[in-house]
Amino acid sequence: MDTRSAEEIRGDLSYLFDKAGDVLGARMGAALADLGITARDYCVLTKAAPGTLTQRELAELALLDKTTMVGTVDRLERLGLARRVPAPSDRRARIVVPTEEGGRVVEKAREVIAGVYADVLASLPPDRRASLLDALVTLVAPGGPLSGSSDYDQSR
Amino acid sequence: MDTRSAEEIRGDLSYLFDKAGDVLGARMGAALADLGITARDYCVLTKAAPGTLTQRELAELALLDKTTMVGTVDRLERLGLARRVPAPSDRRARIVVPTEEGGRVVEKAREVIAGVYADVLASLPPDRRASLLDALVTLVAPGGPLSGSSDYDQSR
DNA sequence: TATTGTTATACTCTATAACTATA
DNA sequence: TATAGTTATAGAGTATAACAATA
Predict the structure, then answer these.
(1) Best CA proximity match to A120, nearest among B151, B144, B8, B156
(2) pLDDT of B1-33, one tens digit each?
(3) Which of A144, A142, A149, A139 is CA-nearest to residue A17?
(4) Residue A83 · residue A75 · CB < 8 Å
(5) CA distance readout (Å), A63 to A56, A73, A113, A154
(6) What is the spatial distance between Cα A10 and Cα A120, in angstroms, rounded to a whole number?
(7) Which terminus, N or C, of chain A has the lesser number of Cβ atoms within 10 Å?
């Protein structure tokens, strides 16, 4: 797969993040596929748990376009994991409410994902584990250099 | 951009890797765009430095399909950064040889990338910096749980 | 018969625009 | 006039298959 040594790979920060994200994503995808859902299905379904959010609100939460949300909710309905319910206050809007089956699947998915994360992090000693998460959060969280916003102040 | 708190984000390992990779990739892309090349151009051009490798060999090194390599080398030739030279030993094969300009651009790109990495890692104290890289390499390198090969032995 | 580079094709994702029914 | 959801369309990117020249 990769012919480079650990020393060479070490210098390639971009590769490290991408590879880690890709492989972890593939692992999660495979684990969730056993439940018949995709990572996006899970992402939307778990955010829909309150049963009070419209498609637009869910799209905002899940950082999805409203047009891709349509297909996702179509899927969830087809799988019997959620239903579209007319919003009482706005006849244009549809509230996404998970079915009982949907609730069970999300719970299962949560366990599966936690298992994958635990399995991956198990290869690190506990102190390194905490250190890795700290560092990643520092980089990615708002104000960090990888936050994606332009609010990063280099002078700090 | 992201409405979740640092605590919430912390629990989402997949998100942390993906976000870090995406934003770092975007930063690198923007930095390299100033030089008129893409990350892939750089990746191929730097591996072609010896001036002895064929398109097939470069595709293997860069983990690219041979068909996407065609377009990449087309670009590099159009930009005057590399040339296709017939391989002496195999009349089917083309060796990718960087031009002088290509060499200069790669060198510039190397500095630019190192600058981006340094800038990003500067937000971590030096010991955390080393710890992060150690942890990432442990996860991603061959034998690790995110190596992508199925050679990961959970019992170790 | 297999391989290098090439071209053409198909397929997935995403982004945009346009339409409806409401507000 | 603007918004929620939907549909249709177009674009980028990738993957597959087929081809000519050569091994």
Answers:
(1) B144
(2) 466 778 777 878 999 999 999 999 999 999 999
(3) A139
(4) no
(5) 10, 15, 20, 27
(6) 19
(7) C
How far apart are the C-alpha atoms of A46 and A51, rounded to whole Å?
10
Output the six-digit token pair for B2.
């992201």
State residue A150's pLDDT score. Answer: 59
Strand D bases with any atom < 7 A from protein Cβ = 3-8, 14-17, 21-23
Rounded Cα–Cα distance for residues A143 and B154 (Å):
36
Q: Which bases in strand C are touched by protein, i.e. have an atom under 7 Å from a CB?
A: 3-8, 14-17, 21-23
**Nearest one of A146, A6, A8 to B46, comparing CA atoms:** A8
Q: What is the DSSP string of A59-96?
A: HHHTT--HHHHHHHHHHHHHTTSEEEEE-SS-TT-EEE
The H-or-E segment that residue A54 falls in is: none
Determine the Cα–Cα distance for residues B2 and B5; give it in Å rounded to an integer: 8
Contact across the interface for A21 and B26, Cβ inside 8 Å: no
List A98's β-bridge partners, or say none.
Answer: A82
A35/B contact by beta carbon, under 8 A: no
Which residue, A63, A56, A131, A79, is CA-closest to B139? A131
- CA A38 to CA A44: how far, in whole Å? 10
Q: Which residues of A touch B121 (CB under 8 A)?
A: 13
Q: What is the pLDDT of residues B43-68, one digit of tens each?
A: 999 999 999 999 999 999 999 999 99
Q: pLDDT digits over B111-131, tens only? A: 999 999 999 999 999 999 999
